[in-house]
Amino acid sequence: MKTEPSEKSLITTFAWLLGVPVFALAAMFMFWMFGGIRWLETKVFPPQRPHFMPLNSIWIDGLPLPISWHHGWWFGCSQSPSGTTNYCRLVVANGAEVYAGEYLPCSSRSPIQEGSIRLVPPDAQDLWLFRRGIDAPLGFLEGGDLLVPVAVWSECESIKAGLRH
Fold this sequence. Notes:
Elements: H1 5-33, H2 36-44, E1 58-61, E2 72-79, E3 86-92, E4 97-105, E5 139-140, E6 146-149, H3 156-161
Antiparallel strand pairs: 1-2, 2-3, 3-4, 4-6, 5-6
C-alpha cells in the first residue's frame, strides 16, 4: 500500500509533534538526574546574601531535596549592641529569620570583632544543638573554634566532642 504525499506529510508532522516534546522531557530528566539543577543553583544562580546580613555571612547548604532551589541558610555574626557578645543570625535564602541570639567563642568569654570573624560552613547535620535541648545553630570558625549560644557556653568541650568528624 502506497501512501499519498499528504499522508506522509501528516505522519512526519505528527512524529515531530510527538517526538520533540518526548525528547525534550527525556533531556530535562537526564539533566536533573545528573546534577544539572544543582549546577544551576550553585554556579549559575548562587544564593544572594540578604543586604542586612553581615559581610562575614556564609551560605550553609541544607540537606538535598529532589527538586529544590537554594535550600539552605545564611549564617552571619556581628557585635551585639552591648558589646559583650556576638549577635548571630540564621536566615533562609529569602531573608526570613530562623534564629537569632547572643553567642561567644568557645576559646574565650570575649566577643570576636566583626571584621575578624571567619565563619566556615558545617555539615547540615552538625549545625543544630537540638540534642542539647536548645533550638539554636552553632557557628563554625576557621581554625576549629565554635561560636555557641551564651546559654550553653559552659558546655563547649562536650559540644565539640559530640560533633561528627
